[in-house]
Amino acid sequence: MTRVLALYLSPRAGGNSDLLLDEFLRGVQDQGALVQKIYARDLDIQGCLECGGCDETGECVIQDDMDQVYPRLIEARLAAVASPIFFYGLPAQGKALVDRCQALWNRVRLDPTLRRPDGRGFFLGVGATKGKNLFDGPILTVKYFLDAIGLPLTLEALTYRRIEAKGAIKDHPSALAEAYQAGQKFAGW
């Protein structure tokens, strides 16, 4: 059975990126796939120390809630990531999770059999501004995050500008329907 790992990176519960990912996952589940959710906001994750402790082992020296996240990330074949955009980047909670995957990057480097070339990733992003490059940085970050956990660098994305107030994505004429359809397609791939 197809399983999709869903990463909610927003610090705000029930916000626009959460609503998009919920709808994407409804599409995934309607295709018969199982979903496993991780909410960065509910985890106590310290930032990477860049100490080099994981260089030879692929194991992070920090013991916190990432210990429960690492096994899910290394097993994921399909991963969906949703995030609001803060100053053209990911919010701190999500970025801490991503940065701590330096350990998994080392683990995959040390054991290339952990790479899953048949895997895929999807990014759902929401930003308040209309900036032309609003999603460039976050998409690159998520691409290389997926590479670090052993998935291919290919990434599909749905992004929406000028969405700010909590729940405003519901007023977009097509966003939720597009997220649902993208989830169906992603799970049925």
Q: Could you list some keywords that capture this structure?
A:
5-stranded parallel β-sheet, alpha/beta, globular, 6 helices, 37% helix, Rossmann fold, 189 residues
Report on this model:
- With 189 residues, the protein is α/β, with parallel strands linked by helices.
- The protein has a single domain (3-188), classed as Rossmann fold, CATH 3.40.50.360.
- Helices cover 37% and strands 17% of the residues.
- It is globular, with a radius of gyration of 16 Å.
Count of helix runs: 6
* CATH level 1 class label: Alpha Beta
CATH homologous superfamily descriptor = Flavodoxin domain
Assembly state of the chains shown: single chain
- E-strand count: 5
Q: SSE order in H/E notation?
A: EHEHEHHEHEH
Q: Name the poorly predicted regions.
A: none
Q: What percentage of amino acids are in beta strands?
A: 15-25%
What is the CATH architecture annotation?
A: 3-Layer(aba) Sandwich
Number of domains: 1
Q: What name does the CATH topology carry?
A: Rossmann fold
> How would you describe the shape?
globular
**Cα-based radius of gyration, to the nearest Å:** 16 Å
Order of the strands making up the biggest sheet: 2-1-3-4-5
